[in-house]
Amino acid sequence: MNWIDKTIFYHIYPLGLCGVQSHNDFSQPPVDRLDELHPWLEHMADMGINGLYIGPLFESVWHGYDTVDYYNVDRRLGTNQTFARFAARAHALGIKVVLDAVFNHVGRGFWAFRDVLEKRQASQFCEWFSGLKFEGDNSFHDGLTYEGWAGHESLVKLNLNNEEVRSHLFGAVKQWIDEYQIDGLRLDAADVMDKDFLSALAGFSKNLKEDFWLMGEVVHGDYTAWAQPGRLDSVTNYIAYKGLYSSFNDHNMFEIAYTLQQQFGANGKMLDLGLYSFADNHDVSRVASMLKNPAALLALYVLMFSMPGIPSIYYGSEFGVRGRKEDQDAALRPALNLNELLAHGERLDLYEAIKKLIKIRKQHPSFIDGAYRQRLLSNEQFAFSRVLQSGFAVTVINAADHAVSIDMPFDGNQTHFTDLMDETASYEAHDGHLYIEMPPSSAKWLMA
């Protein structure tokens, strides 16, 4: 079993959490703000979290996804030495470190693109950028055109088939492994990246570090086109992400059940993939703001932690931090005070419950690699099991706003079930049926 199979991630967007100024004009000296995040590492370790996905980290002008230098940490966060200290502390606490790798595109301030703007056709870097043509014009009135990510001309798409581009990016990966001993990468915009590049990156990085983990940001499509041997190890499970909250909001558990059956059922397309599971992230509204019924928040996390996949928590969401994606992303990426959250967080009950979920998941391998089987499904109730020879775990969800009595048929020999979230409760199955009283908007984890 690889380290990733037992990993629970915490996701930090450092430019937001550190409260940096929005614009980097490169005139200011580095500020070691990453040092201020060491208490967050202690917080992760206390929760039982053993993986950190952090980024973007490297020099940029605005939000980090407009990279101008892959080899130096953004001065608003500190220096390479600042991050080396941070990564060393994370590893000392048993936390793997995965960086946000923005390889699809660069910012207009990227040194090679500036050379093109200055020298035009005479630049030796013309072949570094996709669709570059010295005709027409763009919104910056450069007298040239090029391909940008999703049409955004501030994000200049790299030509990932160019060997010099690959060498430059792979050199950065080698530096990150050598200097910070990072354990993996999250590939931004992987769904629009050249797949041959992704395969070459996999070969290069795993040659440096055999258990190096590569996870791609993929929203739509057949995930197996990206996550496959010799390419990426995992992708973001955006399909399940949507179903997690909308199944509760619409009182339609058929949505998430259909997704999980298609992905992980007996004939599922992604049975052997460790997809990255999340309830929210830096690009989408906080789940506490998305749920119509705040009482369902814990049940949603129980579902996410028990379904197949690699679960993650976006910084602050364990306290029920809110934020909606409107015209700007700032609301999703706030500066937070950890001590204030621990003392006065809106959902301290959720924080304590998630700590318990993490502990339970680590104790029971069924939740990690047990076979998925749907057990019960209606508009507002859903149950499934995770089965190993050594254990049998059942997740039961009641999405209704009222209490219900559930009659769950069983075709096995299991008769006694322990409530993992309430050690004082247990259940007995009779004549192939398990009867459970479920409070409103609740979830139970049972172990046979």
Secondary structure elements and pairings:
Elements: E1 9-12, H1 14-17, H2 38-47, E2 51-54, E3 58-60, E4 67-73, H3 80-92, E5 96-101, E6 105-107, H4 111-119, E7 148-149, E8 152-157, H5 163-180, E9 184-187, H6 195-208, E10 213-216, E11 234-235, H7 238-249, H8 254-264, E12 276-277, H9 287-290, H10 297-306, E13 310-314, H11 338-344, H12 348-363, H13 366-369, E14 371-377, E15 381-388, E16 391-398, E17 404-409, E18 416-419, E19 426-430, E20 433-438, E21 442-447
Parallel strand pairs: 1-2, 1-13, 2-5, 5-9, 9-10, 10-11, 12-13
Antiparallel strand pairs: 3-4, 6-8, 7-8, 14-15, 15-16, 16-21, 17-20, 18-19, 18-21, 19-20
Helix pairs in contact: 5-6, 7-8, 10-12
